[in-house]
Amino acid sequence: MDKNKDIFGKAIAGYYKEKDETSITVHSPDFDNDEIPVAYLFRDFEEMPKLEQEALKLCKGSILDVGCGAGSHALYLQNENKMEVKAIDTSSGAIEIAKERGLNNAVVQDFYKIASERFDSILMLMNGTGIIGKLDNIDDFLQHCHKLLNDNGQLILDSSDLIYLFDDEFIDSEEYYGELTYELSYKGETSDPFDWLYVDKEILQKAANNNNFSCEIVFEGEHYDYLAILKKV
What domains does the chain contain, in order, with CATH numbers? Predict the structure, then answer.
């Protein structure tokens, strides 16, 4: 997304500092507009979906929380589980608020530019595969994750199979049905378009195996969403 507009950061700061409940609007050429209530980004453990609760329970050792937003997942791991967590986001506004909320190690950083650090767990939630962008990028993504993980390290992420949204004609096209393009808007500002990927379980498992990971589906939700844990082999 366009970092200069920092849609998420402005919405998170507005809610935290001024109790402004203006939602973030998600635009896609393939679907009707959707709304993200900013309060949802501040949920505590009891308010989180079962999938997210299960993901947090799987975390171990040193943790990298990618796309941390307002820091809710990382704060739970830090405060309730006393874990070592580094939380990153490309949104400077979100990181500022995450720090104000008490997150000890929150950094404005691009996941793909991390080079020398190593972790026991990488956590990616709220469609963690979205960061891949396009299906053609999945091998590069998994290879980068592999480099960032210690021996016996694990990647914990979620996604959804969007096949139920499309008819057979679209599915038979050359484009993968999980490749979407989004724009975000908030209070009259709109981000540049960005690619966002949803991956079905079979493709994720095959890609994982091709890149020296095992892949286990550990939770499945009611809306074609699932939680996967990939371990280095």
Answer: 7-232 (3.40.50.150)
10-residue mean pLDDT profile of the chain (233 residues): values are 77 98 95 96 98 98 98 98 97 98 98 97 98 98 98 97 76 81 96 96 98 98 95 96
pLDDT score recorded for residue 1 = 42
* Neighbouring C-beta atoms of residue 14, cutoff 10 Å: 18
pLDDT (0 to 100) of residue 2? 44
Q: In what order do the strands lie in the sheet with 63-66?
A: 106-108, 85-89, 63-66, 119-124, 149-160, 225-232, 213-220
67 in the Ramachandran plot: left (φ > 0), alpha (ψ -120 to 50) or beta?
left
Q: Which helix (H) or strand (E) holds 229?
A: strand 225-232
Could you tell me if 131 and 141 are in contact, meaning their C-beta atoms sit under 8 angstroms apart? yes
DSSP string, 152-208: EEEEEEEEE-GGGGS-HHHHTSSS-TTEEEEEEEETTEEPPPEEEE---HHHHHHHH
44: which DSSP letter? -
The whole-angstrom separation of Cα 96 and Cα 60 is 25
Distance between CA 88 and CA 113 in Å, rounded? 11
Paired tokens of 140: 């590069």
